[in-house]
Amino acid sequence: MNLQLNPHSKVDNHHVDGFLPDVLEGLKSNPKKLSSKYFYDKTGDRLFQEIMAMPEYYLTQCELDIFKNKTTDLARLVIPENEPFDLIELGAGDAMKSTFLLKHLVEKGIHFTYMPIDISGNILSILKERLSTELAELDVSALEGEYFEMLQKAALLSGRRKVILFLGSNIGNMNPEEAENFCHSLNRNLTSGDRVLVGFDLKKNPHTILNAYNDRKGITAAFNLNLLARINRELDANFELKQFQHYQTYDPISGACKSYLVSLQKQTVKIGNESISFEENELIDMEISQKFSMEKIEELRDNSGFKRIGEINDSKKWFVDAAWQVK
Question: Which of 161, 168, 263, 278 shows its CA 20 to 30 Å from the CA of 294?
Answer without folding.
Answer: 161
